[in-house]
Amino acid sequence: MKKHNFNAGPSIIPEYAKELTAQGVLNLNNSGLSVMEISHRSKEFSAIMEETASLIRELLSVPESHAVIFVHGGASLNFCMIPYNLLQTRAAYLDTGSWSSKAIKEAKLFGEVEVVASSKDKNYNYIPKNYTIPRDADYFHITTNNTIFGTEIKEDINSPVPLIADASSDIMSRPMDISKYGMVYGGAQKNIGPAGVAFVIVKKDILGKVDRPIPTILNYQTHIDNASLFNTPSCLSVFGCLNTLKWLKNLGGVEKIHKMNIDKAKILYDEIDRNKLFQATVPNEADRSIMNVTFVMTEEYKEKEADFLAYATSQGMVGIKGHRSVGGFRASIYNALPIESIKALIQAMKEFEANL
Amino acid sequence: MKKHNFNAGPSIIPEYAKELTAQGVLNLNNSGLSVMEISHRSKEFSAIMEETASLIRELLSVPESHAVIFVHGGASLNFCMIPYNLLQTRAAYLDTGSWSSKAIKEAKLFGEVEVVASSKDKNYNYIPKNYTIPRDADYFHITTNNTIFGTEIKEDINSPVPLIADASSDIMSRPMDISKYGMVYGGAQKNIGPAGVAFVIVKKDILGKVDRPIPTILNYQTHIDNASLFNTPSCLSVFGCLNTLKWLKNLGGVEKIHKMNIDKAKILYDEIDRNKLFQATVPNEADRSIMNVTFVMTEEYKEKEADFLAYATSQGMVGIKGHRSVGGFRASIYNALPIESIKALIQAMKEFEANL
Known about the structure:
The structure is a homodimer of 356-residue chains. In chain A, the strands form four sheets. Chain A has a seven-stranded mixed sheet, with helices on both faces. In chain A, strands 11-12-14 form a three-stranded antiparallel sheet, covered by helices on one side. A two-stranded parallel ribbon of chain A has the order 1-13. The longest helix of chain A has 22 residues, at 253-274. In chain A, helix 1 (15-26) runs antiparallel to helix 6 (235-251), helix 2 (43-59) crosses helix 6 (235-251) and helix 7 packs parallel to helix 9. The model of chain A has no long low-confidence stretch (mean pLDDT 98). The first copy, chain A, has helices at 15-26, 43-59, 74-86, 98-107, 220-225, 235-251, 253-274, 305-314, 339-354, and strands at residues 4-5, 66-71, 90-95, 112-118, 140-143, 145-146, 151-152, 163-166, 183-187, 198-203, 278-280, 292-297, 317-318, 329-332. The first copy, chain A, is of the alpha/beta class and 356 residues long. Chain A folds into two domains: 15-251, Type I PLP-dependent aspartate aminotransferase-like (Major domain) (Aspartate Aminotransferase, domain 2, 3-Layer(aba) Sandwich); 253-354, Aspartate Aminotransferase, domain 1 (Alpha-Beta Complex). Chains A and B meet through helix 1, helix 3, helix 4 and helix 6 of A and helix 1, helix 3, helix 4 and helix 6 of B.
């Protein structure tokens, strides 16, 4: 049976990218060698790294002021690299969920942290508004999309200090005005490609301003200076990213996928709002993520959640169980998820309602 | 033409592992999903992670006192993680090459470093002997195999303080008495599998003794407590490691491959010693690496190096150009390199000599 992959991450990869990646694992460009067994400094692999960075630059219209690099360790390693590189005295953070909280925890090891606002009071089911970003902060950190709680900051907000955004789970889902950010970063394993690499788009002039010594590999400047080849990267992951980004470019790029993502999210939220069994966990439509759609069963039907999960699974849905901190269901509908999979989920919801 | 892959790293991967990896990229265990697009916390991926760690444990007879974990960033990230986790006051390092030097550089950010001996005086062409390991050092760090300079510490040395070994390029090439080490670590991309993951075998009771706060992801204990799933690992790399380690186990394990490696190294060094055109860069046989065979042309034939490189390349040799700090040639003859490839290189050397 056809599987509909709603995994939150690592998550669905386009067939095109899977096939190119498998081909490169066996025999890269008819070289007789696997992409796994060539030097990261070979011209073949340097070209892969360079093209991957160039595609990110092209797809997001990254200005010359910003470098595009790949580092190790996913977003989580960046949680400590960011304050290591940027926190001189005091940093400001917006707390919109588990990942924000983790970023805040690491920053506190390096200096003073001001949490300007938090939506923790309502289990992170909204995006805080009307907060003030302190003008003396070294930077202001946000999580643009909250994978677990299904909220998203969809605008490029204005910040008087460098704006640092963990965009792990909505990068490439919509156009961004990169010039408004000091740094946009995240793990690759949603819309960029497979896990194993973190992308970093950083405004070059915000670096080099802290006094503390920084271990070489944790210093963003190292990776800029070495074109992301300071040490051996996760070559296979980078190659998978290249193939995924090629797919996105062939499809028409970020503006095109954004329209598709809006359509995909709309029909699913519409069904959740219509179907008497379900309700969205994020009440404010403007705050609802177009990447992770979180929903539960209404009080009246709450005890049917396990049954619906079993039914949806029987219909080919994969990965729709909600995160334990929210419960219910989560449909992660990243770039590569076809609208047919969302229609299949909607049909399962309708059938379950009709057969109740 | 058949390629003979002498790359220093990332380096040759067994065909068996390439095929299993490509299959998993397309469709893991007939699940209909790629290994790239399932949650790292799914039972399918947890099983991959667990089996990979178990195979390392089994192949190296790792005692219960030691944990086997995977971390991000290759050996280079460990260069700063080691002092972060272990350097309270003073650490001792043996300087046997570029990688040792890099490890020393990072340790100096965290405390006092005593370099107990160095072979830098002779361009690292030997392993220092007769040094004293200070009994008050927090640990003693060595690089067991020096990929660039072709030297290797082949014995499990006795140390009065925790012995920390970067074994990136000779792990799994020979049996090791892990009980004699506080930690053995390295990048995977030689004998463990593809790049993108670092293995760490650490004696649990050496951790938790430093006063400094450690960023969560840089704390080895985090990865022990979370079975290497604290955050998303480089899933595809781990899967490639599993397939490579399965190949090694099927072949007969580390004792078997050790015999094969000794045979492989012996015939190549014998030819270098016999052939009037060539000489090994490491004069002392006991110090010669069985993984990276470094050699140059003798003074008399020095100007023929480019010609030999061209000839060997025409015969299918890949990656035999020596590192710029040594010059000449380097044949990296890791576990997966078949003896046929070494015989092909030897034949090219003989033919070049005969045709001169």
